[in-house]
């Protein structure tokens, strides 16, 4: 039996090859071939392409409020090869990669899904959707591994398990129903955006099962901060000669010893005098180290240091592929016995990298709070490849050193002894209602290495007050206090809220926070871990008032429903029905809330419609209209007439975004944008020219080309020019004149050739973060 192993990405395929002895061969007597995937290889087609009948196709194509919510039972859930667009606009399809799997499967006896195992079941979905796409009817098996070390991959290969059909594979069912639910939830963004635009707001208002909860939680907390009014109060307290404070327990319904003005408290203070302190008890106590971190906790700590979630995710992934840190997308907060045994010999090396004192790492017994079997990948921790220093990991990304130091110290803390202290209780002798409890440290233990609970706490005063013990006497004084001010929402605070509702895994929360704090449609801002709303976020928050998608309790139930579907306690169609009901409810909420936007957000920025030109297109006799402006250039009346006659015109303008001068040739033609056909000026395609005849730009990045430059570049030469960056910094770069694609359109352009920077010994992750 020849196994075809489907690895999730090229780096994983290479690791399998190293562990098993090559991309094909025999291991432990079993023939195998390794085939790489590239993360998700398929995606859903447009909704109108997965319904039957012309009426249904037209209805689903419209994406209008009248046609939503969709009837999910009409959808065939058809998929196609995924098409990705690079930052430069070049599109690529994964159709060939899928075809390669089909070819590789011809000689196989069984296909083995050897993708990552993560809490969402996504690895299973990645494998199964390709298997379905190639029409495989043979046996399907599963190879599980904790990390991509040679020993672990070999162990996984030796314990390959049979899988039932995809519809009986719980991991696949859970992931598949989640992906379908998320596809249906795209309607929420359309509805929310349309509702906002009915009030004049030209924005895209994104909604989703996790991003909406994040936005609403942050908005509600900001409202509390804004509504806070300081209310001082005064009361009598005692302070002993060692600085310990003695207070009375206060019940606002019963007690009357707090006053609104200081004079009343001072009058009350005259009833009390100096007194001795009585020690009531001394209790020796111990506190074990906090739990190991998941990616959510790690990113929240690093956020306060100024590292963005997006950067932390990208850097962590590179470090994982180099085996410097463990698998990122885990929800475990403990490691297995085997993992503990593997890591134990590495403790001295890890400690040396982060400067932890080996004299503190004396606890070598298994902690039940940190080590137990039954997890998937184990908590986030250092990997088996220990770097030589923190400086040596910096090429992986800006946050690499901080990632390793935090993970390493958190991991090493479980080898520290418990924090030991005496808890001392006492009271004021003459007035026993005044009491105090203080902590006197005996041994800091793990706290001298890393205190996870303190580091992930959103409370700046999370530490217990440290004391040297109770004093012998105390004097009364008037204490001035205030009602507690709600805290500013932070990454740490948000992580605590989402964890409390068990909404998403740590990795999912980080990737979603990265998404909602990035780009032109960002909902939140993130400044050194402090969160605030963008203008779009403020609009989204108003729309979410009274919604279901913004309710963390509803989202928690939804996550549980998806888990139930994977355990066959609930049918997938029933989970999808919750999406339809939620969309139906929130559709009404969005339009009802939209009318409040002017009062709560302010008037929208005025939107100036582009000037349209109407006329008859002479070649076909059609009546049409098109934009008078293209890429910052306004057509003259004479040019409009030429375009209507079907003629090619040459224009010279300045790109409104880059400020670069350009020269373009084009004519009036039909174009397509987001499925909508329109008439407009279209550049002639690149194949209509040669290097000698293509329009040549007069300048590029502040450099004006000479006639000699143009001759050399048209001849295919590479020349060096002195350009100016966006920050007005001059730099030298070599350029050529050649065809490049942007958003699927090929054109002749100046192409820069920058010197390659030294690369870290890793490959980029091809699997998209999921949220």
Describe the secondary structure blueprint for this structure.
Layout: E1 3-7, H1 10-20, E2 24-27, E3 30-36, E4 42-44, H2 54-62, E5 79-81, E6 83-85, E7 91-93, H3 95-104, E8 110-114, H4 122-133, E9 140-142, H5 150-158, E10 161-162, H6 170-184, H7 186-197, H8 211-227, E11 232-240, E12 245-246, H9 262-269, E13 275-287, H10 295-303, H11 309-321, H12 337-343, H13 347-354, H14 400-412, E14 419-428, E15 435-443, H15 452-456, E16 473-482, H16 491-500, H17 506-516, E17 524-527, E18 530-533, H18 535-543, H19 552-566, H20 572-594, H21 597-601, E19 612-617, E20 622-627, E21 629-630, E22 633-634, H22 637-644, E23 649-654, E24 661-673, E25 676-683, E26 699-700, E27 703-704, H23 707-714, E28 719-724, E29 730-742, E30 745-753
Parallel strand pairs: 1-3, 1-8, 8-9
Antiparallel strand pairs: 2-3, 4-5, 6-7, 9-10, 11-12, 11-16, 13-14, 13-16, 14-15, 17-18, 19-20, 21-22, 23-24, 24-25, 26-27, 28-29, 29-30
What descriptors fit this protein?
771 residues, alpha+beta, six-stranded mixed β-sheet, six-stranded antiparallel β-sheet, disordered C terminus
Task: Give the integer mean of the pLDDT values.
Answer: 92
- Main β-sheet, in a few words? 6 strands, mixed
Helicity, as a percent range: 25-40%
Rg to the nearest angstrom? 32 Å
Distance between the first and last residues' Cα: 38 Å
Low-confidence stretches: 758-771
Q: What class, by secondary structure content? A: alpha+beta
């Amino acid at each position: 039996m020849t196994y075809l192993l489907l690895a999730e990405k090229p780096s994983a395929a290479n690791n399998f090859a190293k562990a098993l002895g090559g991309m094909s061969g025999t291991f432990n007597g079993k023939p195998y071939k390794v085939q790489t995937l590239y993360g998700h290889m398929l995606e859903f087609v447009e909704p109108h392409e997965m319904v039957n009948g012309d009426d249904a196709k037209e209805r689903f194509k419209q994406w209008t409020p009248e046609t939503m919510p969709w009837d999910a039972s009409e959808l065939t859930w058809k998929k196609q090869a995924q098409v990705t667009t690079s930052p430069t606009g070049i599109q690529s399809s994964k159709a060939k990669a899928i075809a390669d799997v089909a070819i590789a499967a011809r000689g196989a006896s069984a296909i083995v899904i050897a993708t990552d195992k993560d809490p969402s079941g996504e690895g299973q979905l990645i494998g199964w959707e390709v298997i379905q796409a190639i029409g495989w009817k043979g046996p399907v098996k599963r190879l599980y591994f904790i990390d991509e070390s040679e020993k672990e991959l070999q162990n996984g290969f030796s314990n390959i398990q049979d899988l039932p059909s995809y519809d009986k594979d719980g991991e696949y069912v859970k992931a598949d129903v989640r992906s379908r639910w998320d596809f249906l939830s795209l309607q929420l963004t359309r509805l929310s955006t349309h509702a906002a635009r009915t009030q004049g707001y030209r924005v895209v208002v994104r909604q989703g099962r996790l991003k909406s909860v994040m936005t609403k939680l942050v908005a509600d907390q900001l409202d509390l901060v804004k509504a806070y009014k300081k209310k001082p109060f005064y009361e009598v307290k005692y302070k002993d000669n060692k600085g310990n404070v003695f207070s009375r327990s206060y019940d606002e319904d019963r007690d009357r010893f707090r006053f609104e003005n200081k004079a009343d408290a001072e009058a009350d203070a005259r009833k009390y005098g100096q007194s001795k302190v009585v020690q009531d008890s001394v209790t020796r106590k111990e506190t074990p180290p906090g739990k190991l971190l998941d990616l959510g906790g790690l990113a929240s700590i690093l956020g306060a240091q100024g590292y963005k979630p997006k950067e932390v995710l990208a850097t962590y992934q590179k470090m994982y592929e180099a085996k410097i840190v463990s698998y990122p997308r885990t929800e475990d907060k403990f490691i297995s016995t085997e993992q503990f045994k593997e890591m134990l010999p590495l403790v001295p090396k890890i400690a040396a990298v982060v400067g932890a004192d080996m004299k503190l790492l004396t606890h070598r017994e298994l902690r039940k709070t940190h080590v137990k079997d039954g997890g998937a990948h184990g908590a986030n921790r250092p990997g088996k490849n220990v770097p030589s220093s923190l400086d040596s990991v910096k090429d992986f990304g800006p946050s690499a050193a901080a990632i390793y130091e935090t993970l390493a110290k958190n991991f090493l803390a479980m080898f520290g002894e418990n924090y030991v202290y005496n808890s001392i209780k006492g009271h004021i002798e003459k007035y026993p209602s005044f009491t105090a409890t203080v902590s006197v440290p005996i041994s800091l233990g793990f706290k001298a290495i890393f205190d996870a609970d303190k580091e992930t706490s959103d409370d700046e005063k999370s530490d217990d007050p440290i004391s040297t013990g109770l004093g012998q006497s105390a004097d009364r004084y008037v204490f001035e206090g205030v009602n507690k001010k709600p805290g500013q929402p932070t990454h740490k605070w948000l992580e605590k809220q989402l964890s409390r509702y068990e909404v998403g895994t740590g990795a999912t929360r980080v990737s979603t926070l990265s998404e909602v704090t990035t780009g032109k449609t960002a909902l939140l801002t993130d400044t050194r871990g402090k969160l605030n709303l963008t203008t779009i976020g403020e609009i989204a928050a108003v729309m979410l008032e009274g919604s279901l998608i913004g309710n963390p309790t509803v989202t928690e139930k939804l996550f549980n429903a998806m888990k139930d579907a994977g355990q066959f306690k609930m049918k997938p169609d029933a989970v999808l029905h919750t999406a339809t009901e939620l969309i139906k409810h929130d559709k009404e909420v969005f339009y009802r809330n939209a009318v409040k936007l002017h009062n709560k957000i302010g008037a929208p920025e005025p939107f100036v419609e582009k000037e349209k030109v109407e006329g008859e297109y002479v070649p076909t006799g059609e009546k049409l209209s098109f934009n008078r402006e293209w890429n910052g250039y306004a057509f003259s009346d004479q040019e409009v007439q030429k375009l209507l006659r079907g003629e090619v015109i040459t224009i010279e303008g300045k790109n409104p975004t880059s400020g670069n001068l350009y020269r373009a040739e084009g004519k009036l033609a039909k174009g397509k944008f987001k499925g909508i056909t329109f008439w407009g000026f279209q550049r002639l395609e690149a194949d209509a020219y040669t290097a000698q005849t293509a329009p040549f730009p007069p300048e590029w990045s502040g450099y004006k080309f000479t006639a000699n430059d143009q001759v050399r570049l048209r001849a295919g030469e590479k020349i060096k020019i002195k350009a100016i960056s966006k920050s007005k910094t001059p730099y030298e770069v070599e350029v050529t004149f050649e065809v490049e694609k942007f958003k699927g359109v090929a054109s002749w352009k100046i192409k820069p050739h920058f010197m390659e920077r030294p690369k870290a010994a890793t490959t980029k992750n091809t699997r998209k973060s999921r949220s």
